[in-house]
Amino acid sequence: MSTLRFDNATVTNMVEEALEFCAEKAGLKDKEQARNALRAGDCCVCDYLRYALAQKVAEYLGSVDDTIQAIYTYEPDHAAFVDEVIPARPNLSPGFNMIAKVTRKSAALSSVVASMRSALAEEYGRLGCPKANALCPELDVQVADEHDIQNRNGYGALLDSLYVRPIEVWHR
After folding, report:
1. How far apart are the C-alpha atoms of 51 and 166, rounded to whole Å?
2. Distance (Å) of CA 65 to CA 19, 58, 59, 101
3. What is the model's pLDDT at position 82?
4. DSSP states of 102-118 as a string?
5. Do the Cβ atoms of 62 and 85 come closer than 8 Å?
């Protein structure tokens, strides 16, 4: 992975594209209606937005780091084997929980994720959801290599879990 200069406009574009996806999936006229639904606290629209943004973030990370083989999203409440009902938003865990399956771990990926995390939080805050808390825009990307997956270590174990199946949102 070469040195990368992160441009916050990348995340702005991701949010705009995700709002279009949201509007289509929620049966809304356009992204402005999706924005208004988010401002009204519509959690269904927010879930569509989070899924679309997870895909956009995964595509971007895959495009800038050739060690990434696939990226998955998952719900940590399910992964922790919680028996209670999962609470309604505002959420109690990061809004974007991802696992990057990589050929090798690198500090460069962590740096890109940190830049993306900051830009995503800023952009997400502009949406103005009344139910949002500080964790809603939080991006958490865990990294698992083949060793982790084969030995079922850490997040590598989650990729092959019987109880939780992370959703693949991008692959090479």
Report:
1. 12
2. 26, 11, 10, 11
3. 44
4. ESS--HHHHHHHHHHHH
5. no
